[in-house]
Amino acid sequence: MKKALIIAPHPDDETLGVGGTIKRLSDSGIAVSVLTVAAHMPPLYSAKVHETTVREARAAQNILGVSEGIFLDNPAVLLGDIPVPEFNKMIGEHVDRIRPDILLMPYYDRHIDHRMVFDACMVAARPVGSGTNIKLVVAYETISETHWNAPHIEPNFTPNFFVDITGQIDAKIEAMSEFQSQLHPFPGPRSVEALRALALFRGSQAGYGYAEALHIIRMGAELFL
What we know:
This protein is of the alpha/beta class. 37% of the residues lie in helices and 20% in strands. The chain is built from six helices and seven strands; from the N terminus they run βαβαβαβαββααβ. Helix 1 crosses helix 5. The longest helix is centred in the first third of the chain and has 18 residues, at 47-64. It is globular, with a radius of gyration of 16 Å.
C-alpha cells in the first residue's frame, strides 16, 4: 500500500490546504497520515481551546479518511523556542517511521510556524535515508496565510500542480465545517464560501470543476513510468 504524509503546522491547516486531496488519496486506497506539529494551547491559548481544536481536527480527519492522526502538541507561535536540531529531529522521526511515498508540506508563507515547519520538512525530505522513498514532495497553500505574503519581497505561491477535487469538494467543506472554532463568517478568508471559491478558481486554472493547487518541490519519474 502506498502511503502519504501530510504535515500540518496547526489543526485545520491540512483541511484548508489539501482536504480534497486527502480524501481523493484515501478513496484511492492510499494510507494517509497527518502530522500536526503545533497546537492552540497554553500559554497563548487555554486548555479548553486546545481540547476543542484537537477534537475538531479528529472529526475532520475522520470525514477525509485519514488513517493516522498525530498531534505533537507544541505551543503555537512558540516553535522558535525549540532548538533547530531538536525540532528537525521531531519531524524527521515521523518521516522515518512512516516512510511515505508522497509528502505534502505547508508553503513558506506569512505565519512563522508555517515557515519553521517548511524548513524542517525540507530537511526530512532530503533524498537520503528514508527520504529516498519519497516520490513526490509538494507544498500546499493555506488560505489567508499564504496569500498575505508581501508580493515580490517574500516568495509568491505559484502553483504548478493541480489536483482535481471536483468529486471531493463537498467532503472538504464538510470537514472544514467541523472547525467551528476556526471558521470566519463570509467574507472572512477562512469561511466555507471563500474556501469553495478558491477551489473553483484553482479548478478554472487547470480545466477542472474544483481543484487544489500545489507547488512541486521534487517529483520522481516512478509516479508515471
